[in-house]
Amino acid sequence: MLLTHFDESDRARMSDVGEKAVTKRIAVARGRIVMQPSTLSLLDGSGKKGNVLNTATVAGILAAKRTSEVIPMCHPIATEHVALDFTTLPDGVEITATVSCSAKTGVEMEALYAVTVAGLTIYDMLKSADKTMRLEAVRLLRKTGGKSGAVINEEETR
Amino acid sequence: MLLTHFDESDRARMSDVGEKAVTKRIAVARGRIVMQPSTLSLLDGSGKKGNVLNTATVAGILAAKRTSEVIPMCHPIATEHVALDFTTLPDGVEITATVSCSAKTGVEMEALYAVTVAGLTIYDMLKSADKTMRLEAVRLLRKTGGKSGAVINEEETR
Amino acid sequence: MLLTHFDESDRARMSDVGEKAVTKRIAVARGRIVMQPSTLSLLDGSGKKGNVLNTATVAGILAAKRTSEVIPMCHPIATEHVALDFTTLPDGVEITATVSCSAKTGVEMEALYAVTVAGLTIYDMLKSADKTMRLEAVRLLRKTGGKSGAVINEEETR
Amino acid sequence: MLLTHFDESDRARMSDVGEKAVTKRIAVARGRIVMQPSTLSLLDGSGKKGNVLNTATVAGILAAKRTSEVIPMCHPIATEHVALDFTTLPDGVEITATVSCSAKTGVEMEALYAVTVAGLTIYDMLKSADKTMRLEAVRLLRKTGGKSGAVINEEETR
Amino acid sequence: MLLTHFDESDRARMSDVGEKAVTKRIAVARGRIVMQPSTLSLLDGSGKKGNVLNTATVAGILAAKRTSEVIPMCHPIATEHVALDFTTLPDGVEITATVSCSAKTGVEMEALYAVTVAGLTIYDMLKSADKTMRLEAVRLLRKTGGKSGAVINEEETR
Amino acid sequence: MLLTHFDESDRARMSDVGEKAVTKRIAVARGRIVMQPSTLSLLDGSGKKGNVLNTATVAGILAAKRTSEVIPMCHPIATEHVALDFTTLPDGVEITATVSCSAKTGVEMEALYAVTVAGLTIYDMLKSADKTMRLEAVRLLRKTGGKSGAVINEEETR
């Protein structure tokens, strides 16, 4: 099976997307930061929760734009839209990132990277209270656009 | 409980570490990238595996050095040592990052961030073969140094 | 009135420009760095003035290219032209930045950001002589291109 | 008078701070983003205001940490504390940045740069409603630490 | 003769490429890192050589993507393909970088910059054994695309 | 012989400098950009030469500060002084970079990287007139500080 970021000698390269068509591409990724319920409750009834989630949003959006600086073989992409959504769980926060572009390659890595950075930002802002948080289940929900067609791993019920 | 990256009005800030002592600080974080066994087997018997893991190593080391650019409230840290270790699992690769410094604050976020970037780099290099990979269980194993003492969440048996 | 970088729940996001047309867009911004006349005269009759203004030019051009890394909701833009112009005032230096691109969104922030970085660069190079400099009146002069039409706040008489 | 970022031939260089003492250094800078009162009122009675100011805070803190990447002759500084404060004015928002470090040179440029980036971030988030905003009066309020002693340009009455 | 990055007053600017056509552009650059044969032999018969060259590949690819952050007048380019090739010489390693894009300006600087960063990465990984390495003969082999036509300075015989 | 950026399994890592002493460290590197004499003469009798060399100075200084972002195994270093010097040759420009710090490891890579970026910046600003320029002889002249003692490869006669 083809691993596109390798040449025929098994050396790493940035795959050539020059001949691919510019199409609208969207990717949605999700993960969650799991913590003790008492940690989560520290955010109740105050402005902290809004500020934590907004800080994670900003960090995730900034990260999505710089994905190709960090993930070595990623192509530079001019993202046209980035949004982060959060759902409070009993034991943590679920993070969903939606990224879109008009480009020759997709934004799967941008969405995944935004989720991890948003998750680690939440971790960082709560870590003085909890040393046992975990980032879990970071995965692609779906992506559309491009020759190989849509991938729907999971329905977004929320 | 104190959330150090907030002021008394619940606004975000970078906490003041000016009065803390410079001490040797080490953090070890771990996570894993989970994939279909057939994806993992694409790396067998060729130079690909070495190049994938080296690429993930380089990405993780570079990331650790730039953590404070990405995680908004992280203090800039001059890391003195960064190493990535990989263990092949039946269904993926376990990633361990060890980071150390001599500073007024620790490198917990640097180690966690290195794990996520190394994991996403592996994901990126294999994603043309598998759309269902997941980054799982990213957490702190242990950290030492600093006034609050050591945190040992998990023994490193490997 | 619409604030495009917010969703319907008042959360920040990078607005979706995917459906906008790619058009030629130009923005011109201006500001000034105000200082004591004696500070300004330090630049007379030597190569210093040329080097200060060239350094500010380089800093401003580099900054314009990286605007979307710094201003969280800015879209990445491939700038096609960036120029900085300087006019010596009796009590400082006026800085004008012109930026253009062919894109789905404009370069207003790029021009404004280039002015501020050029101004702070001049400040930095003169600050050992003057602690009272001020960056003043950083604003958009005009922008063209895009569906909402031209904005002309001020004529450029120089 | 000495301009420290020049050599004896009037060429630019990063001044040598190797022989200076490591001391605690604090700088406070201030500026304001001026807008139409109707623009400011768009932030009333909703979560927008909190998110705008938090986004500006995050942008300003991230910027302070990267000042030496942007202002060419600035020395790299490991900031130990960064905080942004905002005061609503009748026609805009006043922004104050406080930065501290333990280093051989100060953080004046870091504080000024944080103010400009926070101001431009507010501008960016409101610019779809107002094309006439201006960044004004960006200046140093005070700095302490270092051989040349404290500079107090202005009392912080708030 | 025209130096495009200057205006009519000899001031530096980023040249205006707005009116140029988007075409496929390829650039190939080459250089070599020269060292003592005994240094080179340290890489024999072990995994070191693969890891050194892969690390140089990753560094060169990441660098190519960020050229416009580093070379002041370079236009931002979304690279569509980057590959590094290495040939072992009796006294060093020859490095060839191939970069392509579809853009209004070429990727000559991207290819040259990738060669220098890959070369310095090899230097860095071997420098504890040899203080006399040199980076030599970094030049453009050829470039194609754009109005001024192809430049073929040298045939790639390997 | 020890290659410090490898572990005992030949995997790349950032070597551990935690136990090394903080000492004053200086490195001087040199290289040259070689061009046709007619290219060089384009800089005569105008402000262009000053602006080209100042632009190369700014690019080199900015690069030195970011070396550890680019060269994967380099330790982050807070540079205390960076200066670029240029000597006009009959067929090009010789570039010398001097970098110093007080740190646990040296600034050899910073000086070499500053030379290459300054050289490529000159190349970029002249490349519309000459496609055959070459970056040559980038090497360490000397470094001092640290346990292994001074390395003097070459006297700086200018």
UniProtKB/TrEMBL annotation, chains A, B, C, D, E, F:
Pathway: Cofactor biosynthesis; molybdopterin biosynthesis. Residues 14-146 form the Molybdopterin cofactor biosynthesis C (MoaC) domain. Keywords: Lyase, Molybdenum cofactor biosynthesis. One of its GO terms (biological process) is Mo-molybdopterin cofactor biosynthetic process. One of its GO terms (molecular function) is cyclic pyranopterin monophosphate synthase activity. Pfam families: MoaC (PF01967). Signal peptide: none annotated. Its EC number is 4.6.1.17. It is an enzyme of class 4 (lyase). InterPro entries: MoaC, MoaC_bact/euk, MoaC_sf, MoCo_biosynth_MoaA/MoaC, Mopterin_CF_biosynth-C_dom. It catalyses: (8S)-3',8-cyclo-7,8-dihydroguanosine 5'-triphosphate = cyclic pyranopterin phosphate + diphosphate. Coiled coil: none annotated. PANTHER family: MOLYBDOPTERIN COFACTOR SYNTHESIS PROTEIN A. This is cyclic pyranopterin monophosphate synthase. It comes from Candidatus Stercoripulliclostridium merdipullorum. The gene is moaC.
